[in-house]
Amino acid sequence: MDIFGIPIQALMGQLLIGLINGSFYAILSLGLAIIFGLLNIINFAHGALYMMGAFGAWIGLTWLGLNYWVALVAVPVVVGAVGMLIERTMLKHLYKLDHLYGLLLTFGLALIIEGLFRYRFGISGESYPVPELLSGGFNLGFMFLPKYRAWVVAVSLVVCFGSWFVIERTKLGSYLRAGTENAQLLQAFGINVPLMITLTYGFGVALAAFAGVLAAPVFQVNPVMGSNLIIVVFAVVVIGGMGSIMGSIVTGLGLGLVEGLTRVFYPEASAVVIFVIMGIVLLLRPAGLFGRER
Amino acid sequence: MKRKILGSAVAAAVAMAPALSPAATNVSDAIVKLGVLTDMSGTYSDLSGPGAVEATKMAVEDFIAKEKPDFKIEVISADHQNKADISANKAREWIDTAKVDAIVDLVTTSTALAVMKVANEKNRVSLVNGAGSTPITNEQCNDTTVHWAYDTYALPVGTARAVVKQGGKSWYFITADYAFGHSLEKNTSDVVTKSGGKVLGSVRHPFPGSDFSSFLLSAQASGAQVIGLANAGADTINSIKQAKEFGITPKQSLAGLLMFISDVHSLGLDATQGMYLTTGFYWDRNDETRAWSKRYFERMKRMPTMVQAGDYSAVYHYLKAIKAAGTDEAKAVMAKMREMPVNDFFAKNGKVRVDGRMVHDMYLAQVKKPSESKYPWDYYHIREVIPGDEAYIPLSESKCPLVKK
């Protein structure tokens, strides 16, 4: 059976790959959305922190002998701590200023972090092996699905919807959301808002590092891997609606699928299709698909 | 000989003799200055970059030690960030104010083309090594440019012919969607069909890309025996890595059309084993290449790519030509460079043609299995030596205006 001249099997394969890429988009844009929601910071360093996550996994394996599973837990914690340090020492001075200052600071940070890694590791980067347990794959009939990719989709969905649940359905999450609305009032109720902000930034950064560890066996671990991805992820956040948690998850997965379809029908356009959608969405719904006008 | 027996009193005069003799090299402002213009921190910094600067310095040191020239030599370097406008401005500045005589390396085609034009206007030499596109010695050739280590004709030609000969008859291309990728795909397709193979199709991916699984899936669906990677750098690396992940290799085989030893090193043998590639230099080919490369390794902690080894060879040959010509005037030096054969660890009987192409043998390499690699950087089997005359575009097909037909 063919759809527009493309065998349905090829189409299924490409859609599945779209979903895999969408998982990365979702997990990264979720971190950005959380940070923007509470801190009002457009975190341009997100790509560099994602790259740090991937390098963290590589360093753990090569220098310290820590396997993938340890890295998956330890690296986000360490990189998240670095994030909190950044928040405490630099970002906290910018909350009262325009978005632009946060953007410029984090952009500068991204360049510095990337430069340091480039200096130490060179541009070609390093190769991270797929963990033993997840090597090989399933033959789905229409395509060969590497086990590792299936794992990426599963774990991303769990982490994304888990985060959504915590933020939207728990008491802790209600503090977070209240902080987004009116931080001063929340502080009056005896909540330590500055601490909450620091922890939130740390969590957003940890998500980026987590995505980095997930990406290490799939992509070559190199210092610019984050900057290649971050622009697309920003487009995802804008389309989903800045600061919208569910928006960023759904849009991330959805745009992965759209990209996958474009690669079937007109591969040359697959790099721009997301930006075309962004343009259209901004024209019709400036606050994004899931965002609220303020 | 006479002087020798005249005793120590004359020794001082002997030492001064070269400076006084009429054969002294007429070097402008008494110094030959080499400017290494390359990518010091970007995509190509591993295959050329700081290694290119170091190789140039080695050539200068060796030349001074061995040939004892009567002129001074200085090396300066700068990062051109792979941008043509920055390169052209830097070249102009170097030539006008720093009195640079030759510009070395020039990775990426756009920067090479921009700089060789500026250098030619001001009558200075360009020793191109990093960039690979054929227009450098073809449509846009000029009489003060030399192109040394490889080009995008020689690489795919060697690889494609060999792979078809080994039985890889049907091809599918994964091509970077810009001029370089297109021309690489076209050059290779021509060779494949000429050698009796068949091209089943191609897919073009945005440049730069990171996820190649969709394109690999299309290549897999085509059923082609060989997937030609008409891309470079990180794109090639990620294509190879993901081909393994999706179980495409080893059922279908990959052919890297532009690959350097730095790519193989960064990917590891597990992912690259069995691949064919063409190279202008391999460090472990013979005693001479090993001896030089080990010296390079001492300084850089990496083995040289063909670009870095080529920088050394080109710079040494250029300095020799200055000594032979007795001047550093570009046209005279170029004449000597064409006249003298290139014989060093890099090339045997290499020849600089009228279009600026240094013709030398190329090597078809196959990447070793991890079990076959006995020591660090032991990566290639050299399967075939491709004679220079077969590897490069013949002068009869040249579009260079300098070639008289």
UniProtKB/TrEMBL annotation, chain A:
Transmembrane intervals: 6-28, 35-60, 66-86, 98-117, 148-167, 188-217, 229-258, 265-284
Record keywords: Amino-acid transport, Cell membrane, Membrane, Transmembrane, Transmembrane helix, Transport
Similarity comment: family membership: Belongs to the binding-protein-dependent transport system permease family. LivHM subfamily.
UniProt xrefs under PANTHER family: ABC TRANSPORTER ATP-BINDING PROTEIN, BRANCHED-CHAIN AMINO ACID TRANSPORT SYSTEM PERMEASE PROTEIN LIVH
Subcellular location: Cell membrane
Protein name: Branched-chain amino acid ABC transporter permease
Membrane-topology descriptor: Multi-pass membrane protein
InterPro entries, sorted: ABC_transp_permease (IPR001851), BCAA_transport_permease (IPR052157)
Predominant cellular place of this UniProt entry's protein: membrane
UniProtKB/TrEMBL annotation, chain B:
Xref: Pfam families: Peripla_BP_6
Keywords, sorted A to Z: Signal
Keyword Signal found: yes
Residues spanning the signal sequence: 1-23
Presence of keyword Signal: yes
Domain Leucine-binding protein: 32-368
Family affiliation: Belongs to the leucine-binding protein family.
Identification of the protein by name: ABC transporter substrate-binding protein
Source organism of this protein record: Aromatoleum toluvorans
